[in-house]
User: Fold these one by one.
Assistant:
Number 1:
Amino acid sequence: MVQEVLMEIMDYGMPQLGTLKTIKPYIMSDVVMPKTTQSQQIIGGLFGLNTPSSAGSLIKVAQASSKNEVYLDVIENVSAVFSASGSLSSCSVSGSVVAKTFIQEGCQISVELPDDLQLLQGDGDQVGFGSGIVLKSWKLHKEVNSSEFEKTKALKYTPDEGEMTLLNYQLTDELPVNLPFRLFTKCKKTDRDVTLSLKLRSEIPPHAQVVKATLTVRLPKNIERVNSQTSNPSQSCVFDQIKKIITWTVQSVSGPQDLVVVLTMSSSKAESVLTFTNAIALEAELSKYCCSGMNIKHVSVTGHKEPRKGAIKRWIRYATLTDSYLFEFS
């Protein structure tokens, strides 16, 4: 990160525009503003040096400040454990709403969340099926109006340069969520080989996409050879002979689909091939999808005094990542 920041502020070996205000848009974390004196504000150079400015670097910062764009990301992390029968044993969903803005100072942005969003205020609160999105815990950025959020479910804040995590939240475990994947397994034993069929079912909306999904299967140590056959050219299957691990990778899959791989395994002791002692693990990244149903209804900007530069563009993205997604195998 340090190298990227230096590349942004250097021009032919000379430091350019080294004030913290111009560097902050390239820093993807919370920034602590230092206390500056009047003389420091006047100088504005890197380490207090009065350095020359190139036209290229000035144009770049001017363009960045005139974008009039608001970027919002809703990112969720899901952990789940499925029993050998296919039923859900445990589930945990956490998420965050992250903002990055390129508009003039002094504006206020309001991010409206779903109407069915509920906040649990204590252990005594009761929720039932059909209650919508229920948050059992949450944390707001210091610039977000907390009382307004609890009252209207809107994130109102004054934007700052750089990236801001407006909201971190944890869903209640009492209500079901729309989990993106299910796994169905089937074993068949012949005289010489054992065939393991894996069917990964993606239960996501048609507009959503599986960017990448990787299924890891730990095989018994007596497995010597594995042949694989996938149902789609976008899939790949690799067998690690030393670690005895099968890695099945799926990329760029849209909407609900059934993805299948058939593994034919050979062993020196065929009678013990079926002894699988580890759960099957799934790592996945999905776009345009949040399993909790969290979404942004509307984004409004007030206090923008320069409409001649054009309308403010709003970019909203949704993503889901798996933390620990396990399927027990019997």
Number 2:
Amino acid sequence: MGSLSRGSGPGYWLRHPYLRLFVLALIMTCNFLLFTEDPKFHSVTEVDIPFAGNAVQLLILNWPPGAQWIALKLCIGLFSLGIGLIVGKFLLHKLILKRWWRLKLFKEDRGSFFCMAITTGICLVTGSYLYNFILLLGMEDYSEHLLNGKLIMDNQTFGKIAMIGKWLGDSTSLFLVLDMMLQEKKHYRQWAPRLRAKWDVRMGKTLCSLRIIAFWVYQLIMTPLVLALVLANVIDWSKAGFGSTGLERGILAGIVACCDMAIVAQDWEYPRFKTNTDVKLPGMETGNLKCNCLAKYPVVITGKWFNYGIVLAVMVLDFNALNNHLSYNPMAYGQYVHPETQRIMTITNVTEAYDYNQLNWTVRWMENKTESDIMLSSRYLGLSWGWRLLVIVPTALIGISRFSKRKEETEKKRQRRR
């Protein structure tokens, strides 16, 4: 942290408040561009999300006929949910991360909710495959009841939900990072000193500080505006793009993925996170949320973990988007390519959209049966593995460099102890 106080060195400028805010604003901008350019978000086919869809189906969807099979599915779902919570709390958090690795980020009960979320997701996916295996052994007509990644919505609806989720996550992260920087007084003391002095001070006779008022005003104005833009038909999103190709969409998704990792790496306490300062939650006066369902083993969400929990959740969506853009094939989403302009055409008839025969779609075009089809601004030129690696490699290198930085700091700490 010495470079942060001296005001010199690359670490100082890479973690400067203005650059941190710029990275977050860049993520929000790129996500909106991807929303307008992503051809999948205009498809009428059913959304299919491997693993995550399996977990959702195990808990609430695709119930089989017969009381015994319903009881089996319910027992496996609840058992997987309980095991995931227990393993995350006691094995991953308390034993591995806290006792064995002694990571300051997970001291006391901090980060327990994040650990429980990871292990619960893994256990639910594992439980779904166990349930499928039992169906294969014991049910005669099992094909319709096997759990998979499909959800009861089309890609258009999921695209809007995902965009709203990303906006809520990104906008909250933007304000959280700004809030944390203004609450922190040790680093970058020359940055916004007047605002920092008034940020967490109650205003006059009110019970609210400037930080609380600013957060709720920001959310109450911006969130309804974004919801209206995404959900209402004010803008024709199929024509709002700039005509990107698969490579350009992949590069945009790669930039977002890199920026997601940069949010964590730009933290003033990265990579050790050994501070004892409790950052207050956005819009609240408390520094943590605590669930005392089990009095002896509380689940705690601190202000910093609240921020990075949101960042990691959005990061999963962004990396999934990166994978989807690099592996996109129009036929898998009831779409085809205009033979002259190379722009993507979306079939709006659900029955016809599930026809994966490219020959039928070619005949469809030649016989002029495309009146109901929608022409998107996005184009499809095909994407070779060489171009895909061009997008993947920089993202992977940034991730490896961040991990190496963390490992280097850990080794230095061990050497100082010796």
Number 3:
Amino acid sequence: RPCMMRFLFLLLVLCVVDFRIVRSEEEGCGCSVSRGVDAKKETRSADTQEDDDKIREQTSKGFDDYSLMVLIPGGRFKMGLEDEKSDMAYPQDGETPTRIVTLDAYYMDKTEVTNRHFSEFIKDTGYVTEAEKFGWSFVFDKFIKEDILDTIESAVKNAEWWLPVNNATWLHPEGPGSSLDTSVHLNYMSKLPPSSPSSPSSSGVASSTMNALEPKDNGRDRWDHPVIHVSWNDARAFCKWRGARLPSEAEWEYAARGGLKRKTYPWGNDLTPNDEHLMNIWQGKFPTSNSVSDGFYGPCPVRSFPPNQWGLYETTGNVWEWCNDWWTIAHPKKKELVNPRGPRTGESRVMRGGSFLCHASYCHRYRLSARSKNTPDSSTGNIGFRCAKDTTTKDTKM
């Protein structure tokens, strides 16, 4: 019996350790990974409720979000991928069939929420993110310092480039020793091409003519980068503080398209028109080497690339963006949907836009119709968000 007890105790310990060795979604591409915690449908912890109450009291102190937003005109559009036989399509993601959607006017952030703005929220409310509560978050292996990398013994199945790092948070994106006051650390696993004498343009817009062979933001701080290591719950809390909300999936796609129809990207169908890079995705061979031909190795500062026709920046690439909707691939069969909000319950939340880790060789989800998902408590180094806000009658007459 003592031997049996020791065996059971050892088994329990192994289960606890393996709790962090989660798998990437079977139908996914490893662009982002789930924390692996069972998602209770619509269940709120006492800590989360306490945070909500505190945020509700502080909402009036949120900064003037209208200066950070664009008024998106109401309208009607085709949501989803029209060409079901496209080589770019992921049938398992529910990109098809297309749906006719009508939306009222609303506001949308011009950019992803930055570290600078998220820090104001933290100072104002004392909010603690879920990465801080859990004590760890997922970090891309090329960014982890060597002394930390050598201590990590687990990885994500089928996405070994994602490693769980203790104390990785929005403020310390690569764990202990990392800071928003410095650029991302590239370890010995990174195969970065030799530097060139080229320099960034005065406009700050990435261009292939710069022949950039090292990150444009190398040596610079990251306060104007999109905040990362934030869960859906964290993003929702921030939006509440601002008196805003997360966009619905339909609102996200409509705004990201910027009025364009039947287009793959926010500017058209050509990924690099005139050989110019217009978004931040992986260049080279993933995950071993990145040519940095778009100017960035990791997330880039907001407004690094030209906006779409409605003034929204980096709606594709850079970081995934949380949407309010629960995930489903069983879309309503109605001929037309009006202000759809998605399923009432679920286990994962929708993410849109792709990230700097996307590459056509394994993940072509940096398209306007592409979708992904993650559990509401998950956080990684390539997930962020932007806020939306309802309009008033006065706004719609502007």
